[in-house]
Structures are given as structure tokens and as C-alpha cells.
Amino acid sequence: MKNERRLLKNSTDQRMRVSTEESLIPPQASKLIGTEQARATGIVEKKQFQRWAAAVKDRNPLYFDAGFARAHGYRDVVAPPLYVQYVTLGVTDQATLRPDGTPGGQSGDIPLPHAPRRMAGGETWQFHAPLYDGDVITATRRVDDITEKHGRSGRFVLVTWLAEYRNQDDVIVAEARSSMIARP
Amino acid sequence: MADQTYFEDVSVGDSIPTLAVTVDPTQMFFFSAATYNGHRIHYDKTWATEVEGYPDILVHGPLQAALLARAVTDWVGADGRLVSYAIQNRASAFPGEELRFVGTVTAKHDADDGGHGLVDLEIHGEKGEAEVLMPGTATVSLPKRG
């Protein structure tokens, strides 16, 4: 018993925790682990990535000045690296939004009814090739893992995805691992 | 943008120039628009404070991430390149707060291609008395002088 209490105090991993509480992860969420959850295609548009850069107040001439970009080895202006995640955004039906305005009815949703409060966790990017105006990007995203954890502020679910972005030549331009925290 | 940074001129322990930004609601609106983001915590103060219990609307995590990346890409210059980038969302930021995006060189590696070398950085966004908002790491490719 003494030993168990020590584990309880130190553990952030449910596997070490003795609990009769119901899992926050229903079977319809667990079965998504390892599956491709979303696939989307979009076209890189110069004006769109320039709007994104301008919103960041990032006036890097590689994104705005084709002559400058060519002088530095690119064939045209390039998109900011992190912009790649927005190329394949779809069209949101406002009738499907959650009350907080986030998309609710998409295929990318993870059904976690007992953990409705969502927070971005982290993201890890690898950038392999530049993105140019007119490139056709296909993003695929699969669920890497869904696990219940116990942190200082209580139970939560950690969802991890792996995303891959390919261009029209089937070149992987970027890869990302991202995570989300869902709390009761 | 600053002048070009070269691999040979960088040492472990060097700091990159700090990017200090005070985000306002207008910038937040443009970022929501540019990312097609309808999340109410970024524009609906009543929702953010009364429903979600925050003191104000929240600066987007992806905007903080973009600003932190900007600090790095400004430093690497037009002939450098961001190779990898990792961040964790740790704390909330609000409009009107000064946010600082900083980085320190942690390692250097010679790349095989000859013309470039790789540099690892520890990076983070912070506010106030060095409260870390977003810790992370980055690897950049820098041109060599030779």
C-alpha cells in the first residue's frame, strides 16, 4: 500500500495508476489509432500566403519579392514554412461548429465526449522543400496515438497525429507531428 | 531582415536577436482571417472571459509559433533555411502584453553538402518576468563563407 501511494504521487501515466474511474477514451476513439484520418488537397496561392505573412507582420522579402527570391536560388517567391498547414483548409459549414466556434463535424474530429475542453499541445515540423504559388499540396494525417494521462491538474487525453505534405511531383515538402490535450 | 548569417560566424551559446512583439486585437483578427479560424476565444471577449474564464481574448498559439519561427528565419537570412522546428504550447498570452521570441545556439554540425552547415537552437516565446509561453527547438541550415 505504501508503495502504491508513492506511485500515485509520482506518476503521470495511467498505466501505473490504480483506478476504477471510467476511461476518458471511448472505444470509438481508440479504434482510430493508426488510421488515416484525413486527406485533403489544396493549391498554394501567393496572395494567401502573403496575407498569412502580413498577419504575422513577417515582411521577409523571400515571401514578397520574386526578384529577391530568385537572387537567392528560388524560382519565385516562397511560402513561409509554417504556412504549409493552411494550404489544404476546407470550407466550414457554420451549422457544424461547436459552441466555441471550432469545427465540430469534420472527419478530423476525435470523439472524446468526456473530455470536451481542447488545447493545442505541441508540434514538430520537418521542412524538406519550398512551396511555390500554384503547387498542389496533398496532406494526409493519421492518428499516431490516443492516451490518457494524469498531470498535476488532473486527468487528460493526449492525442498525437502525424501529417505528411506532398506536392504535385509526389515530393514530401513537410512532415509534422502534432498533439492535442483534451480535458474533462 | 538582418544581414546574412554564416555558419562559420556562429558559436554555441550565441543568442539570436530577440523579436519583441505586442499583439493587438487587429493583428489577431487578421491572423484568424488568414488561417480561417473561427475559434471564439480569439475574438469574442465575452465568451473568453465569462464562458472559458480567461482574463481576456487569447493570442493564437499558431500566431505565437509563427512569431517564434519569424525570429529564427529573420536570423538565418535569405540564404539560410529552417530545417526543423518544434514547439510546445505552455501558457496563454493576451493582447497588449509584450511577447519576446528568443533563441540560443546549442550545437553545430557540418552537413554533407559542403556549402552549408546545420545549427541547433533552443528557442522560446516569453512574456513578463521571463514566463515561458512556448518552449521549443529548431535546426537551421546556414551557408558557409568558403
Please state the average pLDDT score of chain A.
87
Count of runs of 4 or more consecutive helical residues of chain B: 3
Structural class of chain A: alpha+beta
What class do helices, strands and sheet pairing of chain B give?
alpha+beta
Number of strands of chain A: 5
Oligomer class: heterodimer
- Strand content range of chain A: 25-35%
From N to C, what is the helix and strand string of chain B? EHHHEEEE
Number of helices of chain A: 5
Describe the structure.
The complex is a heterodimer of chains A (184) and B (146). Chain A is an alpha+beta fold. Chain A is built from five helices and five strands. In chain A, strands 1-3-4-5-2 form a five-stranded antiparallel sheet, with no helix packed on it. The N terminus of chain A is likely disordered. Chain B has 146 residues and is an alpha+beta fold. In chain B, 23% of the residues lie in helices and 34% in strands. Chain B has three helices and five strands, in the order βαααββββ. In chain B, strands 1-3-4-5-2 form a five-stranded antiparallel sheet, covered by helices on one side. In chain B, a hairpin with a 5-residue loop joins strand 3 and strand 4. The longest helix of chain B is centred in the middle third of the chain and has 16 residues. The interface between A and B is large, with 37 and 39 residues. Strand 2 of chain A pairs antiparallel with strand 2 of chain B.
